[in-house]
Amino acid sequence: MRARSLFPAVLAAALLAVTGCGTEGGSDSGTDAGAAPSTASPPTRSSASSDGGETGAAGAEMPEVLKFTATTVDGKPFDGKALGGKPTVLWFWAPWCPKCRAQAAETAEVAADYAGKANVVGVAGLDKNAAMKDFVSETKTGSFPHLSDESGDVWKRFEVTEQSRYVILDKDGKTVYEGVLPGGDGLAEKVAGLTG
Question: pLDDT tens digits, residue range 89-99?
Answer without folding.
Answer: 999 999 999 99
